[in-house]
Structure formats: structure tokens, C-alpha cells
Amino acid sequence: MNAFERLVGQSQAVELLGQAIAQNRIAPGYLFVGPDGVGRSLAAKCFTEELFYGTEAKQKSTIQKRLQLSNHPDLLWVEPTYLHNGVRLSAAEAAEKGVKRKAPPQIRLEQVREIAQFLSRPPLEASRSLIVIEQAETMAEGAANALLKTLEEPGQATIILIAPAIESLLPTLVSRCQRIPFYRLDSSGVEIVLRRNKYSEILQHPEVLELAGGSPGEAIASWQQLQAISPELLTAVKQIPKTLRQALELARDIDKSLDTEAQLWLVDYLQHCYWKQFLKGQIRESPLEKLEKAKRCLLSYAQPRLVWEVTLMGMCQSATL
User: Pfam families under this entry (predicted)?
Assistant: First the structure.
């Protein structure tokens, strides 16, 4: 079985990557660009399997391949991290330790330096080393500039950046990568992925599918977020506060109950809910602009409770005018 057969609805990406391997014309840098949750990370894993193992990969089980990749000496998989008491934690590690995450994770300068250190030695088993950087758009300018130096002279290595749009990265980084486009899936593609990953119950919830907009990964993430929020809080946030006191109390409950990552998801969820209410004439003014400003503030590491207080009070005042 070709590793790329696990990808759904990304024929152009499969063709470009497959031809690169078949013709042995591997670029030093790739940019896997497209929406979250449509298969970019899976494509990077499939590409790695084909590049490292070739025909041998077709004879191995999925579990065997995953174990081999996780321990392969020539693969470095980099993901955004949180900084807690001077220690870097991945999203999974932070959740496991119950760490209250007050700011979104990011690719840090120290991680980029570790990439350079990783590439300072030649590959041990494969013909080239491979580095995959997830959510590359979270790199600060200092980290991006440091990575640029590595991309200019990667040696016997290929670096894959995964990002939602070319505009989210420095143009100098983009110019040194071959772009591999990824697209949102149609409804049948989303259904295939959800059933394959044992999330068929999501298909019974149209609002989750609408919010995901053709991204099965986003549908799964939204479903998990909805399950984690208390029904009382979920009911409260769907209604614009009628008084300033309600707005302040709701802001307190949001900040107390949800970490910043969940709050960012909540902004997207509320934008979807309020837009539907506005179209149906259930509210007089759409608060989408206020919510979009709240998202920018949260991403800029502003104090979350203050962001929600200002946003909800503004929505309350607009509704009473």
C-alpha cells in the first residue's frame, strides 16, 4: 500500500510529492500550505515514510511505520510549545500536566537552534535528514530569521513547513520553499475521514460540520472543545449579555473555565453562532467585528479576562442602543 493512499481529497499534493520521490528530485524546502485539519501533517508523515522506506513501507503495518518514524534518527518533528516555569511543553504535555495555558504556543528560537544542531551531523540511516515544523506561522521574527539561515544551506536535509497561508510566513522563507497546496474537502471526503477516525457521531451535528467548513480535523477539534465546555457556560455565551454586570460575570466565567487556546476556539464558534442569529433577524447588529478584535488581542497575549470584559460589554451596549 502506498503511504499516500491514506490521504483523502488531496490529489494535487499527492501527485507533486509522489513525482518528487519517483524522480529523486527532493527540494531542500517545502511549504505545505492550506487550512488546518485537511491532511497536511498526515501528508508529511506519508512523504517521510516513502522517502525513508520506499517499497519497504508498503509491507509494514501502520503501527510499525509509526513506531519507526517516532524513533528514526534522521527525523526531527517540531511543534509549537508553551513555556511553563522555564520548561518547554508541547500541547499534549501541557494537557497531561494540567498546565493552565495563558498564551498560544509558538515555535521558539531555542527550537530553531536545535534544528541547526540536528543538521550539524550527516544523516545516519537515510539518504537525507528530514525536519517537519508544524504551525510554522507561530514563529516569532527572530526564530524565522534564524530558520532562514538554515534553509539557505540545509546540507543533506529537507525542511517541511506547515502553515495555513503563505501570508502567515516571512516572504523570504516562502521564497526558499516549494509550495504544496492543500484544500478543504467536500462533504463526502469529510465523511470518509470522520468515519475512518471513529468520529461518525459528528455527522449528526450540522453546526459542527458548518463550523469546520470542509476540514475534518477542525470538525474533530470543535467536537472535542464542545464536549469540554459545560452546558451552562455554552448556553450563556450564545446569548448577548443584557446588562453590563452579566457581561462582566460571563467574562469571569470564560477566563476561569477555559485556557487561551479554548478561548480562541470559542471566538470562532461565537462568530458562527451570532452570524446565523443575525441572518435570521434574531439580533439587530452583528458582533463579528468585536469578536475578531478579541481574537487579535488574545493572539497578542493580552490579559484574557480583560479582553472578554471589553468585548462582552461592547456587545451589550450595542444591543441596547
Answer: DNA_pol3_delta2
